[in-house]
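Posting here for the record, re: flavin-adenine dinucleotide.
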Amino acid sequence: MSGLRIDRELCIGCESCIMTCPQNALFMEDGKAQVDRDACVMCGMCTDSCPVEAISIEKSGTSPMGEAEKGDVWAFAEITDGEIHSCSKELIGKARELADRLEAEAVAVLVGGDSVKPLAGTLCRSGADRVIAVCGEKFEGLFEEEYAAILGKLIDEKKPEILMFGATELGRSLAPRVAAKVGTGLTADCTILEIDEEKRLLKQTRPAFGGNLMATIVCPNHRPQMATVRPGVLPMPQEDENRKIVVEQYDTDVPKPLKELISVVKAESEAKSISDAKIIVSAGRGIGAKKNLALAQELAELLGGEYGVTRPLVDLGWSEYTHQVGQTGCTVAPKLLITCGISGAIQHLAGISGAETVIAINTDKDAPIFARADYAVVGDCVEVLKELIAQLKNK
Ligand SMILES: Cc1cc2nc3c(=O)[nH]c(=O)nc-3n(C[C@H](O)[C@H](O)[C@H](O)COP(=O)(O)OP(=O)(O)OC[C@H]3O[C@@H](n4cnc5c(N)ncnc54)[C@H](O)[C@@H]3O)c2cc1C
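Prediction output follows.
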C-alpha cells in the first residue's frame, strides 16, 4: 500500500514535520517522528519541511497495468437521506456500459450502517453485477477520512481498473483523498466519459482553462483510473427487476476518527434545486428585460416545471444563482428544455448535455444553440412565450 515512510536513522527529532502537518497525522515516539497512517492524506507537506530528507512518500500502483491485471469497473454508491443518490445510479449505468465494453464486472461499493444494506438491490437492478457492502453499525456516520481509509484498503486488495464518484459535496472531498492514498490520478468534474477499449484507457472529458475548452484526460500509468462525474450529465439507467442481486460483504477496521460531529443544524430555507426538474424553461440575454423573465417563469409553471437562466442574467441581478444552468451553475437533465434567447455558449451547454428534448427559440438562425436543439424556432422569444402561454391558458 502507498504510504509515508520515515527513515528513523535520518530523523533528528526536530518536529518540523509535526508542526507542518495539517492533518495532525505525525507524532513523536522515542524522539523520532512517527506517522498515523489512517490520518495521513499524503499531501507531502512534511516531506518538504524535513531538513534532513528523512520523509518520503511511497506509492503503489505506479507501474502500468499489464494484461493480467485487468480489473472491474467500480462506482461509489453515495447515500443521502437514506436513499441512493441519483448521481450514483447514473454512475452505475456508466459502469455497466464500460464493464460490458471491457469484459469486466460493474461493481457498486456501498459503505454505511446496517440500514443501507437493503439498498444493494437497487444498485444491482440499476446495472451492478455485484455490490461490495461495507455495512454494519461501525460504518454508520463516517467522515471522508474514514471512508478514504476503507476504500484505500479495498482498492489495494481488489484492484479495480476504474473507480467513479459523483461530483457531489461528498464525492469532491472523498475522491482526491482516495486517489492520494492509492497513488493514482483523478480527473474531477467530468462531463463525458468514454473508453478506448484497445488500450483500456478511460477518456475523461471536463471543461478546462476557465471553461474555454473541453479537455480529454487519460491516466495511462496508474490504476485505478479515477474520475468524479457531475450529477445529471449521465443518463439514468432503467431499473431491471430481473437482474440478480449479488452482495459481497466486506469487513475491515474503522480508523480512529479525526473529527467529532457535535450537532447538525438544518438550514431554515433551502432553495429548491432545478437539477431534478423534468421540464425547464430557460431564459438568456435575448429575453431583453427583467420583466420578460416572468414570462419564462409563467410558462414553466403552466407546464409544471422550473425556470432556468444563463449566467449573465444572474450577473445582472435578474435571477437567483440557484436557477443558473451551466458549468458554474446547475447541471440539468430534464425531459423537456425550452431555451429562450440563449446563444448556446460552451459553458452553458456543459450544463444541459443530459436534456432529452431541446426546443430553442432564437432570432439568429445561426446561433450555436440550434446545433444542440431538437426543434429550432427562429423568432422573438418574448412573442413566442406570450403565444405559448395564451394557448396553454385557452386549453
Ligand atoms: C468560466 C466561465 C464560466 C461560465 N459559466 C457559465 C454558466 O454556468 N452558465 C452560463 O449560462 N454561462 C456561463 N458562462 C458565460 C458564457 O460564456 C456565456 O457568456 C453565456 O452563457 C451567454 O449567455 P446568453 O446566451 O444568455 O447570452 P448571449 O450569448 O448574449 O446570447 C443571447 C442570445 O439571444 C439571442 N436573442 C437576442 N434577442 C432575442 C430575442 N428577442 N428573441 C430570441 N433570441 C434573441 C441572440 O441571437 C443570442 O444568441 C461562463 C463563462 C465563463 C468564462
